[in-house]
Amino acid sequence: MLTNQYREEMLQLIEAISDNGYAKIEELKRYFGEKAIDELISNLKELEMIGLNGEGNLYLTEKGKLEASNIIRRHRLAERLLHDVLGVEDEAAAEKHACDFEHILDKEVTDNICTLLGHPKFCPDGKPIPPGECCIKNKYKVESIIKSLNSLDVGERGRIAYMFSEDHSRIDKLASMGLMPGTIVKVHQKQPSLVVCFDETTIAMDDEIAQDIYVKKC
Known about the structure:
Elements: H1 4-17, H2 25-32, H3 34-46, E1 50-52, E2 58-60, H4 62-85, H5 91-101, H6 107-116, H7 133-137, E3 146-148, E4 157-163, H8 168-176, E5 184-189, E6 194-198, E7 201-205, H9 207-210, E8 213-217
Antiparallel strand pairs: 1-2, 3-8, 4-5, 4-8, 5-6, 6-7
Helix pairs in contact: 1-4, 2-3, 4-5
C-alpha cells in the first residue's frame, strides 16, 4: 500500500534527476522497484501531479512542481533548524532527521520554523530554500531566532549561523577576517558605524555588510 511518504519521495526524486524537465522511468525503478513504480506513477497521475511525454518519460505538472518545491522547502528548513538551533553537527544524522521532518511538517509549522530562523535563503549546504508565503508577505508572528547582525544592540553577542550575499567576494573577505559560521561576535558600538569584536579582533563594517551576516543571539 502506498504511503504519502512514498509519493513525496517520488516527486522529490523526479525533480532531482530530471533532465530538461523529464525523468526516465528506468532510473526511478532503481530507487523504488518495478512493482512500486507502476503503482506510484498511476497514483500520481490520478492526483494530476505527473504526466508522461511521447517518449514515455515523466514530468511534473504545475501541481506536482509546487508540491515538490514544498517538500524541498520543508527538508532544507529542517536542516537549518537542526544545524542552527539544535546544534546537530553530524551531517549524516542531520540529513536523516531532515528526511523524517519533511514528511511530517504541515504548512503552519513549516512557516513558523521559517519565521523563527529569520526566513533563511539557503540550507547549510548552500542550496536555495524555496520561499513560502511567510517570506513573501514578511509577516513576523514571533521574534526570529536567527537575525541579521546589525539588529543586535550594543553589548549583545551572537553566534554566526550563516552569511549570505550575492557578492561572493564579500563573503570571502569576511571569512579572511575570521568571520565565519560558529564565530561569536559582540556589538561594541553602532554609531557612527557598526563595530564588532570577536576573539581578539575588533573591526568596523557598514550596515549593508552586517545585513549579510545572520546570527543566533547568545
